[in-house]
Amino acid sequence: MSAEAANPGAHSRRRGRSRIDLRRLGRAALLGPAARHRLPDAIGHVADVHRAHHPDADLAPLHRAYVLAESSHRGQFRKSGEPYITHPLAVTLILAELGAETTTLTASLLHDTVEDTDVTLEQVEREFGAEVAYLVDGVTKLEKVDYGAAAEPETFRKMLVATGDDVRVMSIKLADRLHNMRTLGVMRPEKQVRIAKVTLDVLIPLAERLGVQALKTELEDLVFAILHPAEYERTRALIAENSTARAVLDSVAERFRAVLRDSGIAAEVHIRPRHFVSVHRVAGKRGELRGTDFGRLLVLVGEDADCYGVLGELHTCFTPVVSEFKDFIAAPKFNLYQSLHTAVAGPDGAVAEVLIRTHQMHRVAEAGVIALGNPYATAETGAADPDPAAPGETADGERADPTRPGWLSRLLAWQEATPDSDAFWTSLRADLAQDREIAVFRADGGTLGLPAGATCVDAAYAQYGQRAHSCIGARVNGRLAALGTVLKDGDTVQLLLADEGARGAFRETGSGPSPDWLDHARTPAARIAIGAWLDSHPEDAAPPAAAPRRPLPVAPDRAEGTNALIDLPDADPAAEPVTVRLAGCCTPVPPDAVTGFPVRGGVVTVHRQECPAVSRMRSLDRQPVPVRWGEATDCRVTLVAESFGRSRLLADLTEAIAAEGAAIVSATVEPPSEQRVRHTYTLSLPDAARLPSLMRAMRGVAGVYDVSRTQHPAATA
User: Which of 62, 376, 409, 518 has its CA 20 to 30 A from that of 584?
Assistant: First the structure.
């Protein structure tokens, strides 16, 4: 499958530059020495592309590397029948088009020579220097992957360690995998699937983390075609059926140009067609697509300030969709990405998504770390320094060094503590499955980069390492919070540790990480550290024996679906039964961690521990009442479904709820706002264990983009 077939935006990226004809070059290579005058055409094409990004580049190393690669690979053929030299040429051309510097291109031409020919690493170092030799050595180890269960984990461990020293190793690997995926059709179907799964689980997330969107999107489409051929064909047909979408976007783009021209802002407006996977995702969320859903508009300007000028003009002349606005310029993503995201509605109601960025931001958005040139160059070497104002730099070191992003430093740290290959492989795939990162602020003013879904436990180990074993609590945004509290982007977290003087007592009491902490930990570093501590303190892993307590008899509120028991150590067994109610603000269900508070009328209200009402009651010095779940499994819960408006949405949602065996007690549908609809359902479930399955089924309804448990302020009286 060609790159253009998989990526509708490929033509726009290569506009004005013809693609290299690898088959013609392959035939030329077969002719041998008599036709060698034709071979420099291949490296000449790469050199032209390279010079477009680096006008002053020294091309001599590229010519010498090509001569060595062509002569050493002569007589070798790919499974497609092409001479093998076409592969390193294609890999090098991919990197050249992304703006890679000369050293990377030299190493990419030679990346298979040490593994597949008689060329030695010492010869490469002697002729091209230690830097090129290191890159070739790193990729050589990767290319020995047999994709067997035993070889895979350690091979990828070596790859990541090499990437920790030089991110250009991963750049070459990603380009190498992209060309192999483009030509994967000659492989057996089962091998195609195996390679595609590894690409999906490991290499695509790594491309995302390094910010190389141009490679990531094409890899996604190629994997999509192999692993989900039916959905791929449907998406391809959907794009073909909507061939007029380009005309709709052209019309909107022309209106944008007129507005910006009248305002005096020098800007370029381009159409960015969505690639296949993106169209498939949007179709799954929105159901029926409109012409503007098949692409986005890209506005390029010269200066950062112009980005906000463009935003102001578009929001003034068109109706903005406020919920779609995101500012990744003031707060760059963890992979260096910067851009303003917005969406505006025209007079006809069509909503167009818009990306606003500078030309430099666009280069980094497409090529990620590759766009930084040689990030290791110094003035002494004579090479150009990386852009001193590289996007995403922060004073705390999280993004200040583009050669060691925060996520990579964390990954390298925990992999050292995971000697077992299977555990490493499982942790790696789980870590890379976190496709979004958040930044939380420390109380001392620094920041922590964490995967989305991370908790206070993860923050503690990210900040303090082994000292986090003594963590006794946390404050999130100034309020006391449970260690299992899930953090959100922009939260301020203060971790509370046992003081130095009390640390001995802390150990003696058997406190410290408990098995419950593992339920809250999302990062491999936290899970590995907690697991190691529990293994070395088996006596602390089990809860200490306690004197038996007689719970008070409780009058369960069956209408609320609870059978909780209130445990009061000094209670009189002869006292009257206590009425228990589930809080309507958070609707707890088994096995949620819960706590109770006495309210007026002798009633105990039970809340989820992370409910905002719990923090509010504690701040008012309300004393909690210990509660626990009984044997009953039926429950009542309130769910909120956020969706895009479409016909039959309510019918499809209620059908999905009924199919899961849930009964609808009440339902509320708010009026549509900005093409969004909010549904609130109070449901009765015969078994609380069915709740995750029910929420998944509701999320699977076309047009629904989120389903969550209700959680809103409640009265504390």
Answer: 518
Distance CA 221, CA 473 (A): 45
Q: Give the pair of three-digit tokens for residue 311.
A: 């935003």
- Answer whether residue 716 shows pLDDT above 50: no
Cα pseudo-dihedral 219, 224, 226, 228, rounded to 10: 170
Average pLDDT score over residue span 300-313: 94
Q: What tokens does 38 get?
A: 């034709």
Cis bond leading into 375, ω under 30°? no
Asked whether 2 and 66 are in contact (CB, 8 A), the reply is no
d(CA 264, CA 218): 36
Question: Measuring CA to CA, how many Å separate 613 from each of 494, 567, 598?
Answer: 20, 21, 13
Rounded-to-integer distance, Cα 221 and Cα 207, Å:
14
346-400 pLDDT, tens digit per residue, is 777 788 999 999 999 999 999 888 887 776 665 344 444 434 333 333 333 333 4
Residue 468 gets which letter from DSSP? G
> Binning pLDDT at 50, 70 and 90, where does residue 97 land?
very high
For the segment 544-562, the average pLDDT, to the nearest whole number, is 37
Say if residue 668's pLDDT is above 60. yes
What's the CA gap between 317 and 309, in Å, rounded?
12
Q: Which of 159, 146, 57, 53 has its CA nearest to residue 111?
A: 159
In which element (H, E) is residue 272 found?
A: strand 268-273
| Strands 447-451 and 635-644, sheet pairing | unpaired
Residue pair 581/604 in contact (Cβ under 8 Å)? The answer is yes
3-state secondary structure (DSSP) of residue 621: coil
- Say how many C-beta atoms besides its own lie within 10 A of residue 669's C-beta: 14
When pLDDT is averaged across residues 30-56 and rounded to a whole number, the result is 68
The yes-or-no answer on residue 262 being catalytic is no
Contact 706, 641 (CB under 8 A): yes
Contacts 24+ apart (CB under 8 A), 505-514: 506/470, 510/539, 510/540, 510/544, 511/472, 511/540, 512/469, 512/470, 512/537, 512/540, 513/469, 514/540, 514/541, 514/543
Q: Are 195 and 186 in contact (CB under 8 A)?
A: no
Is it the case that residue 261 has pLDDT exceeding 90? yes
Q: Alpha-carbon distance 604 to 710, whole Å?
A: 20
Which of 116, 393, 516, 634 does the annotation list as catalytic?
Answer: 116
What is the rounded CA–CA span in Å between residue 642 and residue 18?
46
The SS3 of residue 637 is: strand
Which has more confidence, 628 or 77?
Answer: 77
Helical (H) or strand (E) element with 664? strand 663-669
d(CA 68, CA 121): 13
| pLDDT score, position 703 | 74
Helix (H) or strand (E) holding 355: strand 351-358
**Residues 212-244: pLDDT tens digits?**
999 999 999 999 999 999 999 999 999 888 888
Looking at 21, 115, 201, 304, which residue is catalytic? Answer: 115
Report the C-alpha gap between 243 and 485 in whole angstroms: 47
Confirm if 379 and 385 have CB atoms less than 8 A apart: yes
Structure tokens at 245: 């979408």
| pLDDT tops 70 at residue 510 | no
